[in-house]
């Protein structure tokens, strides 16, 4: 029972991290790259897209759920969409695309925890795959609704998502590497300190 409760709390925590990280980066993106906005909710640089892939790769289903909640909040209470179908489909596409991309990448590359094995070439492939899947899903839903495709908006979304993904994944991989070095350094310091203490005794 305790394990089940701990697992549930961990899952909710991962959903919350994804939700607030996405909303935070969306706020930063609008401040920094507002001039690169192609249309409402679509930008030529979209950093939050990096959280989409990173959260689904690290948290799995919890990442998908956090992204879905973030998409629902933004599409209904932040962006000015005149269609509920547009709002719902955008939220689903923004969460489902990265989730499926992360599953495919994990299967193809047999990635280890902390994204070990994700080389520069694989990182580029992963970013491009996710940068394609979410916009394509999004505009497929729009085609169902309107009967036509806005190719300029689709291109902007692909470029923006791919750029944001590569920026965030690159930074995350660097931070993880630094954290690993710091942990190793701390371990060595503790080991040397212990040895010195034993010698003095």
Quick structural summary:
81% of the residues lie in helices and 2% in strands.
Structure explained in plain terms:
By secondary structure, this protein is mostly helical. The chain has one domain (2-28, 44-200): Arp2/3 complex 21 kDa subunit ARPC3 (Orthogonal Bundle). It is 81% helix and 2% strand. It has helices at residues 2-32, 48-59, 61-77, 84-109, 120-146, 151-200, and strands at residues 37-39, 42-43. It has a two-stranded antiparallel sheet. The radius of gyration is 20 Å and the shape is globular.
Low-confidence stretches: 191-201
CATH architecture: Orthogonal Bundle
Q: What strand order characterises the main sheet? A: 1-2
Characterize the largest beta sheet: strand count, sense, and whether it forms a barrel: 2 strands, antiparallel
Give the SSE map.
Blueprint: H1 2-32, E1 37-39, E2 42-43, H2 48-59, H3 61-77, H4 84-109, H5 120-146, H6 151-200
Antiparallel strand pairs: 1-2
Question: Which key terms come to mind for this protein?
Answer:
mainly alpha, disordered C terminus, 201 residues, globular, two-stranded antiparallel ribbon, 81% helix, Arp2/3 complex 21 kDa subunit ARPC3
